[in-house]
Amino acid sequence: MQVKVVSNILEANEAHAGVNRQRFKNNRVFVLNLMSSPGSGKTSILERTIDHIKGLLRIGVIEGDIYTAKDAERIGEKGVPVVQINTKGACHLDANMIACALAELPLDQLDLLVIENIGNLVCPAEFDLGEDIKAMVLSVTEGNDKPLKYPLMFREAKALLVNKMDLISFTDFDLDLMEKDIRGINPDGKIFLMSAKTGEGFEAWCRWLYHQVQAKKEKSSVTASG
Amino acid sequence: MQVKVVSNILEANEAHAGVNRQRFKNNRVFVLNLMSSPGSGKTSILERTIDHIKGLLRIGVIEGDIYTAKDAERIGEKGVPVVQINTKGACHLDANMIACALAELPLDQLDLLVIENIGNLVCPAEFDLGEDIKAMVLSVTEGNDKPLKYPLMFREAKALLVNKMDLISFTDFDLDLMEKDIRGINPDGKIFLMSAKTGEGFEAWCRWLYHQVQAKKEKSSVTASG
Question: Within 13 Å and on the Cβ side, how many CA atoms surround A22?
């Protein structure tokens, strides 16, 4: 019975996600769903990412939080359009919440929309939002055992941002073991070693992200003219 | 409709939790539900806690993980009875999972049962397992903004273990602000500043926990003889 209920919720979400995906395609906007545990550094990474590429791409942000608008305020200071979703207790964003938030964004004037999901390593991975790619953050202070303990999100992420590299020497985080575990469940995911504090790794990450956005634009141009 | 479904699941859980609670009472075992984000250090704290008080109390552990038995193996090395629950995707432990795990534990020979919940700052707080108290871990590397962003768990925790204090000087974690935020939602919760790496704070935490366990035993003796 419970499985049935969950399956219906996911099916309904899938339908909403399909509508979102078509809308993103029509507007030629690339959408990144950014996920992680609480406190891994999603917002800090996003702040630096915006600094790096806002000269190249028009960026918008949807901030997901259970309560508070703290993260949206931080992103708003970067001078990009941002919408806060407060789920009031719910542990993940779903496609319908995104559809509602889109009404507040100038979608046709954006190249890249970043959705910062609820801090939760489990539930958000199950809900398609209509995004082009999922990326996730793992901070080294969380430990290298997370990929095998929370495999769904690590499997689905097209990019893994290993954050807080400035602290790695104070931890027992084993990069080789983590990479081996990741490769066992996600052979093609890109791994970026980063620090939102020092800026390490942002050039490579932002270059890769820029190329993802451009690739979608080129593909949709071909489709439109073909 | 969705609200109704969720409410039914929580009601069913409440009934199972009541049965667990009576069983714990009959066996005079004190039960601690330990919660946090992934990678805050629940298992490391538990390892040190066992080292500190296994001479005083008979301890058993239920380890909750989505996949793997890594944590149960770590705890098993401490020489205490441990049962692993693998939820296979589910984001929290529920009271029925605990009821099943209890069949594998010598409950009448324990003073303290610790349930290490799934690493998730959201969902586990909603599910009563029949425990005597909830405690939670927040590591300083996660940031001091977590109490207001995830208030339910911080409100319900009778003890907050602030872990990784050995790293605080490398972060911008503001202890005063965190305490102020906690006091706004949970005026009576005990706060322990700790490091599972250095051992800081364990004496105070273990003394407090020991007294909680003894208080339940004394209360149940009075009830039994009264």
Answer: 5
pLDDT at A6: 61
Phi, psi (degrees; rounded to nearest 5) at B134? -100, 140
Structure-derived torsion over alpha carbons of residues A35, A41, A42, A46, reported in degrees to the nearest 10: -160
Give bridge partners of residue A33 from the DSSP assignment: A115, A134
Asked if B166's CB is within 8 angstroms of A39's CB, the reply is no
pTM: 0.92
**Interface-testing mutation among B88, B142, B167, with chain A (most A C-beta atoms within 10 A):** B142
**For residue range A20-77, what is the model confidence (pLDDT) as tens digits?**
999 999 999 999 999 999 999 999 999 999 999 999 999 999 999 999 999 999 999 9
CA distance A142 to chain B (A): 4
Please classify residue B77 by burial: count the beta carbons closer than 10 Å to its beta carbon, then call 0-12 exposed, 13-18 middle and 19+ buried: exposed
Return the amino acid letter for B118.
I
CB pairs under 8 A between A and B: 108
Sheet (strand A133-139) strand order:
A82-86, A59-65, A112-119, A30-36, A133-139, A159-163, A190-193
Instruction: Give the pLDDT score at B2.
Output: 40
- Among A43, A145, A172, the residue to mutate for chain B (most B Cβ within 10 A): A145
Output DSSP code: residue A79.
T
Contact B117, B64 (CB under 8 A): yes
ipTM higher than the 0.90 cut: no
Q: Report the distance separating Cα A13 and Cα A18, nearest Å.
A: 9
> Which strands form B133-139's sheet, in the order they lie side by side?
B82-86, B59-65, B112-119, B30-36, B133-139, B159-163, B190-193
Q: What are phi and psi of A193, to 5 degrees?
A: -90, 125
Residues in chain B with CB shorter than 8 Å from the CB of A9 are: 2
On whether the CB atoms of residues B122 and B108 are closer than 8 A, the answer is: no
Looking at beta carbons, which residues of chain A come within 8 Å of B43?
none
Residue A71 burial (CB count, 10 A): 23
The residue assigned the tokens 């872990």 is B163
CA A57 to CA A60: how far, in whole Å?
A: 10
**Residue B60: phi, psi to the nearest 5?**
-130, 160
